[in-house]
Amino acid sequence: MAVARERSRAAADSVPRVQAVRNALQLLALLGQSGPRGMTLAELARALALPKSTVLRIAMTLVDERAVQREEETGLFKLGIRVFEIGSLVLDALEIPRHARPLLERLSQETQETVHLCVLDDGEVVYVDKIESPQRLRLYSRVGKRAPAHCTGVGKVLLAYLPADERRRILERRPLRAYTANTITDYLRFEREMDEVRRTGIAFDREEHEEGVCCAAAPIFDHTGQVRAAVSVTAPAFRTPPERLEELASAVRRTAMAISETMGYSAHLAALRSWGGETARG
């Protein structure tokens, strides 16, 4: 079976890639990052390092497929409804938001702060759900947004539970860049932080990604004991002195465990599996 999988993987690796498809996906990603304004043809061509004529052909094909829309008056390109439709199907397939939504809403009501549900994709954090804080001062974020993993609470959680070699490969591709004066940029210190996250089941972002923003995050496990996602509570730093951040950590940990249990996770069975694995290795 393992040999067959290796042959299948080798065959897949040998299949030629279609650059036009890659360009189209990169164009969609750029429009997703551009926000409600969209981008001009010249801006897209410059960002993709492609001729305008090539970008126009790609963009208009996507317009025909409703993945992109073009404003007649301004000529600006924006994401189309087809992308939302496909994205909704992906979220449905993940199942996590469906299990998590009621508990995320309860967590936001309890803490009166913004709550996020995130997954790891290609070494980055992707926000797949969000419950807005009811307070007047809110923090900007949106579903679909990507963020670095090493300096966000949810990212630290998702990295901490990866095998060490996989985490190392991610950090080689995405180095510990400093976003604020508080960002951890030393690899050994970061690994100690990973140990602490696994020990406590909580990760903190103390103004490490954005100045003035703090968060506490915890892992969501599936029925096999694997971490599938992370949930966080995010708040302005002036509302989160150390004792308040600890309160948020307790609340987010309870919520993450409740979501994990709806997905079939059992801490007792997970401990037994872990013990069995250690025994087998010993």
Structure description:
There is one protein chain. The protein has 282 residues and is of the alpha+beta class. The protein contains eleven helices and eight strands. Strands 5-4-3-8-7-6 form a six-stranded antiparallel beta sheet, sandwiched between helices. Strands 1-2 form a two-stranded antiparallel ribbon. Strand 1 and strand 2 form a beta hairpin.
Strand-helix topology:
Layout: H1 2-13, H2 19-34, H3 41-48, H4 52-64, E1 68-70, E2 77-79, H5 81-94, H6 96-111, E3 114-121, E4 124-131, E5 146-148, H7 153-160, H8 164-173, H9 187-200, E6 203-206, E7 213-221, E8 227-236, H10 242-262, H11 267-281
Antiparallel strand pairs: 1-2, 3-4, 3-8, 4-5, 6-7, 7-8
State the main characteristics.
single chain; 282 residues; alpha+beta; 6-stranded antiparallel β-sheet; two-stranded antiparallel sheet; 11 helices; globular; disordered C terminus
Question: Radius of gyration over alpha carbons?
Answer: 21 Å
Q: Could you report the average pLDDT, rounded to the nearest whole number? A: 84
Principal-axes geometry comes out as globular
Instruction: Work out the number of β strands.
Output: 8
Multimeric organization: single chain
Query: Which H/E pattern describes the elements?
Result: HHHHEEHHEEEHHHEEEHH
Order of strands in the sheet with most strands: 5-4-3-8-7-6
Task: Report helical residue fraction.
Answer: 40-55%
The helix-and-strand class reads: alpha+beta
Biggest sheet record: 6 strands, antiparallel
Which stretches are low in confidence, meaning pLDDT under 50 for 5 or more residues running? 272-282
Strand residue content = 15-25%
For the termini, the CA-CA separation is: 26 Å
Q: Give me the number of helical elements.
A: 11
